[in-house]
Amino acid sequence: SYLLACINTIDELLFTINADYFIGWFSEGYAIVDSKDGYFYIDRNGNKVFDKTFFYAHGFHNGYAIMKLNYQNTKNSVINKKGEIVLDSLYDFVSDFNDGYAKIQTKNQRGIIDTNFNVTYLDTAMHFAYTVDENRNIVSNLIPVTINNKVGYIDWKGNIIINPVFDRGNDFYEGLASVSLGGKWGFIDTTWKFVIEPQFSNAGCFSEGLAPVHTEYSINGSFNSFIDK
Hints:
four-stranded antiparallel sheet, 25 strands, about 0% helix
């Protein structure tokens, strides 16, 4: 067991806690502690909340957190800020909530759930596209999906907004999404127009006005440059 400390932005010591592994970042007032007995949450004073320990747990987003109850249960559950289970072991995968929506997935079905737990199931021909951030969360109100091995974009209700014509596609960050067409990557805006024409052998996503790209062929496609918008 280690004595871990939490400080604020002006280097003041807020609290210390005995933990076996680490303390995660604070999100919506709570942080996750990974201990030998499982995961639990602490508040900003370092006190354990909920009096519960979980097999696995995520941080809070939109007032909810994704967790697994025990190692025998492969399904994901959702708790609220009181530690109450509001979705009990229903889905193989649940993303963190963002802007009131999350991705859900079972063996044969994919969908989008809101914070009132209404589910919009996608057409069975649709799959969530594999993105540069491994398709973990909903990033914006346009979600990349794969239909017949081509990538397009749907809204939170499952409607196709950008037709599936791209070979690959990432989420929209800062209004632009990197997409691959004809073996080259470029960037489109939400009206489906190329703002940056396909010219790179790989491309990531914009953050703080810059995006990583690869400007020439490489055996592993690693990024080697940054571009602006």
